[in-house]
Design a protein that fits this description.
It is built from twelve helices and twelve strands. The strands form two sheets. It has a six-stranded mixed beta barrel. Strands 8-9 form a two-stranded antiparallel sheet. Strand 2 and strand 3 form a beta hairpin.
Length: about 400
């Protein structure tokens, strides 16, 4: 009976006896594992980056927009199809709903902003005083729009940090006069830098009261009403209360609701599929590595026919011969897996250093899974050659020697 220690010693001796061949074999597995680690690291990094971009305004958000998103047959004749706008009264009614912590009735457009002898065309948003609370934004200097009565809000404007720099440079902008479109405003605050959101520069914008934006853009309703709600309250419960209130006010459901929670779930599912897809592409290299192990182990069985015959003649059980070659195949794939992990992780970090804007993240679960896959591939690839070795007739094997 051959001891397990002796079996391990024989397997390692077989690997080191043909160093170049063994290295090239494990390199096939290493390249496959490195490809899986690299691609899934990039995929997971992009996943986290996109979710971070979408959650920088908070996660407990609900948006209400005019118009019902649906598909139906031909519209009945004689019934108007115009969409009733979302009004400031609708917005104030929504703000009074239970568990609502903030409301921003939004109207936006692109117009000219003049100030300090300079002219700039930029985004001008009409918002309500709760905007900072709803979007998790902070004031850098001065104050935000005061809590005036919505319809009679004074002509105050708050500037994004970039727009402030473009118009006033390092000078203090508070108290200065601006012309937005054809209306006059006074600067009361400057926001802290928020950066970009999906390519949109949030700092290059001006924020004015909603009522003044309706006047500026000659609109009779909101483009969206964004609401924030308490932590721990189900989004479905908030949506149901919004639907109930607006149906009572409008007489029908002529609006659409989007919750941040539902959007993030859908987005996360899409990104998970993307990560799995790129990982599957990298797994093709693992199949190539598995074929390499099958080839090498088949050659090894042919080369060591005499050794197998001698072991069987000395009384080694068939399962010992099977374990010997399976152990060799698993050792090759495990070593290749470790080498591939180091290579893949190193390449991922190198890419992150060369391209800092590209997020890279390697979850430990992927590392463990990749190594397990490498061992399983070695086990599966070694089964057929090992079974062939275990079934050799000892007399014929010794005769071959």
């Amino acid at each position: 009976m051959i001891r397990p220690v002796d079996t391990l010693h024989l397997a390692l001796r077989a690997i080191t006896a043909h160093r170049l061949r063994s290295f090239l074999t494990l390199l096939g597995i290493a390249v496959g594992i490195a490809a899986v680690i690299l691609l899934t690291s990039i995929g997971e990094g992009i996943h986290r980056f996109v979710l971070t971009e979408f959650t920088q305004f908070g996660t407990n958000l609900v948006s209400v927009v005019p118009g019902k998103v649906k598909t139906s047959g031909p519209a009945p004749t004689g019934i108007p199809t115009s969409v009733r706008p979302l009004t400031l009264e609708d917005a104030k009614a929504l703000r009074r709903l239970p568990h609502i912590t903030g409301m921003s009735a939004v109207v936006w457009g692109n117009t000219e902003v003049k100030g300090n002898g300079r002219l700039r065309r930029t985004t001008v948003e009409g918002v309500t005083p709760d905007m900072l609370k709803v979007y998790s934004m902070k004031i850098g200097s001065g104050q935000f729009l005061p809590p005036d009565e919505t319809e009679s809000a004074r002509n105050f404007v708050v500037l994004g940090s970039k727009l402030k720099s473009e118009l006033f440079g390092v000078d203090n902008a508070l108290g200065e006069r601006l012309t937005v479109g054809n209306l006059q405003f006074r600067v009361v605050g400057v926001l802290e830098s928020k950066g970009q959101f999906l390519g949109i520069d949030l700092d290059d914008a001006a924020y004015i009261p909603t009522a003044r934006a309706l006047e500026l853009y000659n609109r009779d309703g909101m483009m969206t009403i964004d609401l924030s709600y308490e932590e721990g309250i189900p989004a479905a419960r908030i949506s149901a209360s919004i639907i109930s209130l607006l149906k009572a006010r409008h007489g029908r459901e002529d609006f659409s609701i989007t919750t941040q929670e539902d959007m993030l779930k859908t987005l996360s599912n899409i990104l998970d599929i993307l990560t799995m897809a790129v990982g599957a592409l990298g797994s093709i290299s693992l199949l190539v590595g598995g074929v390499g192990i099958v080839t090498i182990m088949t050659i090894a069985v042919t080369e060591r026919t005499g050794e197998i015959g001698l072991l069987v003649a000395l009384g080694a059980p068939r399962k010992t011969i099977l374990g010997l070659f399976l152990g060799e195949a698993v050792a090759l794939s495990a070593l290749g897996g470790i080498f591939g992990l180091v290579l893949g992780f190193g390449l991922a970090q190198l890419i992150h250093l060369l391209v800092p804007a590209l997020p890279v993240h390697t979850p430990i679960a992927f590392v463990i899974f990749a190594e397990v896959i490498a061992i399983v591939i070695g086990l599966l690839a070694g089964v057929l050659p090992a079974r062939r070795a275990a079934r050799l007739d000892p007399v014929e094997a010794l005769r071959a020697e």
